[in-house]
Specification:
The chain is α+β, with helices and mostly antiparallel strands and about 650 residues long. The protein contains 12 helices and 27 strands. Strand 3 and strand 4 form a beta hairpin.
């Protein structure tokens, strides 16, 4: 289903039984010293696990930190006294409000910044005594010195506190990033997985994944496509590492169990220690790092375009298809899309709307071959509905004719390997391919780059394709996605042929409002293609809400690339009706759910961001497409008057 910009339904409201105090929590600020409570100056040692600060333990942890891989990190098996952490867990679940937040890079449930506890009155603070104790212990001079001794990170701020409680429930995830934003120095997570009485099982997901790096095409480090270390959550376990541009790449595996199963959720306290701030001992002005952060690298991308043969005259949009063009295209396309009347009508629509979605685009024999073959391919590769584990291994589907494409701080999916021995001879008719991989290859290597398809695109878009890029993509459930990128300086024509087999053979969306959407069309499985309006220069380019037609993020919230806290201000206290009015336009220009045998054409203006949402482990198979991108020229009619 294609959606233009439209009014969006209100975000989920907090349960009326929850206290209202958390509506007043603010984020990302420096806590005033005058607001500190007496617990901040008290000795925090009794709250921590025994011997945590013993010189021998610090030496051991420092040695482990220095020798760790793929980047320096350390795991503390037990950080706090267990009874304190249990009380914190109870207060969080009974007193705090969690807002659902979803962008291209994550889906989580999160509280406001806990530094805001300093702004509450005594009555409100009395509801959260253990949480306040834990927060003040974490940011105490003793614990900050402990972190410095283990990591060698330099002075850390005690006034700039940056932490929240995050709940990963079924379907929640956090994709690859390096955490580099502002003055962050140390990233940490303290696990409180539920239920407390039952150990968290690895197959439930939610592991912290750490990635090695390799030199990228520009010589700068970028993460490998597959993590080399996985740390499942364990109660009272504390993981931390120094934030390093180009090195501290990590992600959180999707959680595949839910609250209906013994109340399971990956609950944690996470945040950052910042460098010393102005006025604090050890403060030094920020310097620009040599390596761009993962967020900065997402600002734009560069496509590798190929040129058409010079000996072929470029087609004009007004030129009809030649017999040779029609003969070639008829082996791929539904014949209705080769009729002059149809093409003229499509061109008129495209001029008005700048996008088209054409159903049943391929001819029936080729579509039938692919529909059956791709499902069988998923089953054979352990990616179908009956796979052994909901989250498949990283090697699944990335063998044989397919290979992994990264880097995962921008995208991860499978592409076709170049054929051994060079290009193969074309098969005629095209649906005679016995292997679905080869049928897909013929679409990628024969149809999309062909002069005939170029001429067809010119007719239906009134544009002239100048150069092209075409890539077959396979997005595996529980593993693959693209993050939001944009082409800052040029308008492009995107041409994407969706080949994702639908549930129970339903290749079209529900025809009426009474029939419930299921599978891909419900949005629950992810994989939708989303276009977002250009962002303001001061904003994070990866900030927006869910592209799902089913769910929206919380009122007045924006996420950032990385599991950054949502920035909130006094607007959170406005009347809910006013908040809903402000949310009418969240920047979503177009959202298209995965479909089978559908061609999407989009004229993408400069600066517009696009991404393919992470494909959930709930999906019963891969999301497949052929992704074409075309440099274009505008055709101008010659004027009889010349200046």
């Amino acid at each position: 289903m294609t959606h233009r910009t439209h009014d969006r339904s209100p975000s989920p409201e907090p349960d009326s039984s929850e206290p209202s105090l958390l509506k007043r929590l603010k984020s990302s600020h420096i806590s005033p010293a005058s607001a500190s409570t007496s617990s901040a100056s008290a000795d925090p040692t009794p709250h921590f696990a025994p011997d945590l600060f013993a010189p021998s333990n610090i030496h051991r942890l420092h040695t482990e930190y220095d020798g760790s891989a793929p980047f320096k990190h350390v795991v503390v098996d037990k950080l706090f006294q267990d009874d304190l952490l249990q009380r914190v867990k109870d207060e969080a679940l009974s007193e705090l409000s969690f807002s659902e937040k979803e962008t291209d890079i994550y889906k989580v449930y999160q509280t406001g910044d806990l530094a805001s506890l300093n702004y509450l009155d005594e009555q409100q603070i009395a509801l959260l005594p253990s949480l306040l104790t834990l927060r003040d212990a974490l940011y105490s001079p003793m614990f900050r010195n402990f972190l410095r001794a283990v990591t060698g990170c330099g002075p850390l701020s005690g006034t700039k506190q940056d932490m929240s409680i995050v709940s990963y429930r079924k379907g929640c995830h956090l994709l690859n990033h390096d955490d580099v934003i502002g003055s962050r120095r140390v990233s940490y997570i303290l696990y409180m997985p539920l239920p407390h009485y039952q150990g968290w099982q690895r197959e439930w997901g939610g592991a912290l994944e750490l990635y090695p790096v390799k030199p990228g095409p520009d010589g700068l480090p970028e993460p490998e496509a597959v993590p080399s270390k996985s740390i499942p959550p364990v109660w009272n376990q504390f993981v931390f590492f120094e934030v390093q541009p180009g090195h501290s790449f990590h992600s959180v595996e999707e959680v595949v169990v839910g609250e209906s199963e013994d109340g399971r959720q990956r609950l944690s306290i996470s945040g950052w220690f910042h460098a010393a701030q102005p006025g604090e001992e050890g403060y030094q002005p920020e310097h620009q790092p040599e390596v761009k952060s993962s967020r900065e690298q997402l600002a734009s991308t560069q496509t590798d375009f190929k040129s058409y043969p010079e000996n072929i005259e470029p087609p004009l949009p007004t030129d009809p298809l030649t017999e040779e063009h029609v003969s070639f295209l008829s082996e791929f396309l539904n014949p209705v899309y080769l009729q002059a009347r149809t093409m003229k009508a499509l061109a008129s629509r495209f001029v008005d709307e700048s996008s088209l979605e054409l159903h049943s685009f391929l001819c029936a024999p080729l579509a039938d071959k692919l529909r059956v073959g791709l499902k069988e391919k998923d089953d054979a590769d352990g990616l179908g509905p009956n796979r052994q584990t909901r989250i498949p291994p990283h090697t699944a589907g990335a063998e044989g004719a397919w290979q992994l494409r990264g880097p995962p701080h921008k995208w991860r999916y499978c592409t076709l390997k170049a054929p051994e021995g060079g290009s193969k001879m074309a098969v005629s008719p095209r649906w005679a391919h016995t292997d679905p991989d080869e049928a897909i290859r013929s679409l990628q290597d024969e149809l999309f780059p062909s002069p005939a398809f170029r001429a067809w695109l010119a007719c239906v878009s009134n544009l002239l394709p100048l150069r092209y890029s075409a890539e077959a993509r396979r997005f595996r459930p529980g593993l693959d996605y693209t993050l939001a990128t944009s082409e800052a300086k040029e308008t492009r024509l995107d041409v994407v042929l969706g080949l994702t087999p639908q549930v129970d053979g339903h290749d079209t969306v529900a025809s009426n409002d009474e029939e419930p959407l299921h599978g891909w069309q419900s949005g629950e499985w992810g994989g939708w293609e989303c276009y977002m309006a250009p962002h303001d220069e001061e904003d994070d380019p990866a900030v927006y809400r869910s592209g799902s037609s089913k769910k929206k993020a919380a009122n007045g919230t924006n996420g950032t690339n990385g599991h950054n806290h949502v920035e909130e201000d006094e607007a959170d206290m406005r009347d809910e009706d006013a908040e809903e009015e402000e949310e009418e336009d969240d920047g979503t220009l177009l959202t298209v759910q995965p479909g089978f045998n559908r061609l999407l054409l989009v004229l993408r203006d400069e600066g517009v961001m696009r991404f393919v949402k992470y494909v959930s482990a709930a999906a019963e198979g891969s999301r497949w497409d052929i992704c074409g991108e075309f440099e274009i020229g505008m055709v101008q009619e010659e004027s009889g008057d010349e200046a």
